[in-house]
Amino acid sequence: MQLLLSTRKGLIQLVPEGTSWRTLRLSFPGVAVSYATRDPRDGRIWACLDHGHWGQKLHYSADDGASWQEVAAPKYPEGAEVKPGVPAVLRYLWVFEPGPADQPGRLYLGTEPGGLFRSDDGGASWNLVTGLWDQPTRTTHWMGGGRDHPGIHSIVIDPRNSRHVRIGISCAGVFETLDDGVSWRPTNRGLKASFLPDPSVEVGHDPHLLVACTGAPDVLWQQNHCGIFRSTDGGAQWTDVGEAGGPAHFGFAIAADPANPATAWVVPAHSDEQRLAPSGALCVCRTDDGGASWQAFRTGLPQRDCYDIVLRHALDYREDRLVIGSTTGNVYVSADRGVSWSCLGNHFPPVYAARFA
User: Fold this and answer.
1) What are phi and psi of 133, to 5 degrees?
2) Can you give the pLDDT at residue 174?
């Protein structure tokens, strides 16, 4: 097992060493890496780069990060517009998702300004998923959250049916396709968008991250701008399961237990307005009853003068281990499902994504 840290100053690979971890290598030093992950089908590591001057770049490594091959990043078709009069130009590579085993060449990229790209030849070429781009609500109800334009940051493939894909869009909500991307529909009933005149709109929500329980794929979780929501029917209906009066409410990251559909983890922030660790103390909250109750774990995490927040892709779970990486360059791991934590280091660059690989 490795740990991939996508940071403001490069991609850092760490490997276990005794009870801790050591740095294996740094790739792309000085360059912001927005997201990196390993494709379990062929072992390639893919890295999305956000060059301040040269724009968005895409690389893969077939030798565990020892060397890298650049491939052409996707381009929006000539004449594509975010809105009338606003040309669609690739601004950010939000997330990279390998396809399922029965689609060996399939890869997905979620981007800003709201386009989903797909490759069926292992990344040699990319095509905009026009069924989603042409979705009627895109030009009228999609909008930017913390960035200028909408961004696709979550791609969830149904393990039972590779033609069934769900995505999370900030700001628009959750959309799904049942026909391999030909058509898409919103699945946002029960969500609340308190920042809009009509909080119960069908489209216009801000999921910060969408995840599913692998063993029970109809159980979905999302850390939303307006709380924590869970669905047990594949997104047909969402229920607010945030902790009233407690820390488990606002945040960015969420992780679902792949075997137990009642268990999930979040890393709270104080509020939308402040986006700091609650009361200056970092905690990780876990529910084991589908969100009916939450327990905050703090052992090993800073409990005073703490300004850390954890971004949407900077929490991961694998085989009872959890990792969190913060915007202030602190990385913590837990070997007991989040009950206690140990610090891997306090001097990493700001962490955009943390993924076990």
Assistant:
1) -60, -30
2) 98
Q: How far apart are CA 353 and CA 97, in angstroms?
A: 13
Residue at token pair 């040269």: 54
Q: What is the DSSP string of 242-273?
A: --TTSSSSSEEEEEE-SS-TT-EEEEE-S-TT
DSSP-assigned letters across all residues of 313-326: BSEEEETTEEEEE-
Contact present, 98 and 133 (Cβ < 8 Å): no
SS3 280: helix
> In this structure, what is the dihedral angle of CA atoms 323, 301, 228, 167, given to the nearest 10 degrees?
-20
Cα distance between residue 102 and residue 311, in whole Å: 31
User: What type of residue sits at position 329?
Assistant: G
pLDDT (mean) for 290-299: 98
For residues 325 and 21, is the Cβ–Cβ distance under 8 A?
A: no
Q: What is the chain's length?
A: 357
CA 171 – CA 147 distance, rounded (Å): 10
Q: What are phi and psi of 57, to 5 degrees?
A: -130, 155
Q: How far is 223 from 208, CA to CA, in rounded Å?
A: 5
pTM of the model: 0.97
Q: What is the mean pLDDT of residues 34-53?
A: 97
| pLDDT higher than 90, residue 272 | no
- Here the tokens at position 198 are 């009509």
Per the CB < 8 A criterion, the answer to whether 263 and 254 are in contact is no
- Going from the C-alpha of 292 to that of each of 98, 202, 277, the distances in angstroms are 33, 25, 23
CB 152 within 8 A of CB 168: yes
pLDDT digits (tens, 9 = 90+) for 186-230: 999 999 999 999 999 999 999 999 999 999 999 999 999 999 999
